[in-house]
Amino acid sequence: MKIKKGWKILIWIVAVIIALLLITSLAVKLIFTKEKLLAMIQPQVEKALNRKVSIEDVSPSIFKGLGVDIKGLEISNLPGYEQKNLFKIKNFSVRVKFWPLLRKGLR
Known about the structure:
- This protein is an alpha+beta fold.
- The protein is built from three helices and three strands.
- It folds into two domains: 1-31; 33-107, no CATH class.
């Protein structure tokens, strides 16, 4: 059975889009390693909260939305409190809305 020319073009376009997404995902994971993300995120959070922050694992994400997935976040309490940690979170994600970034506006 012959495939019409229009379908061949559509299949190629879809294949190229999928390949670009996979290459982009791989490039993001290679550029933004765990160590680099921790070095970018942890000091900023510590400075903003004025508390010691511990992060077990962090990884970039583009398929579920542009952002990062964070595992094992612990934020220490200030000295003098009974509890060691202010709070502890096993898993959570931080996402950025992509389209407003392209229009140069955040909401």
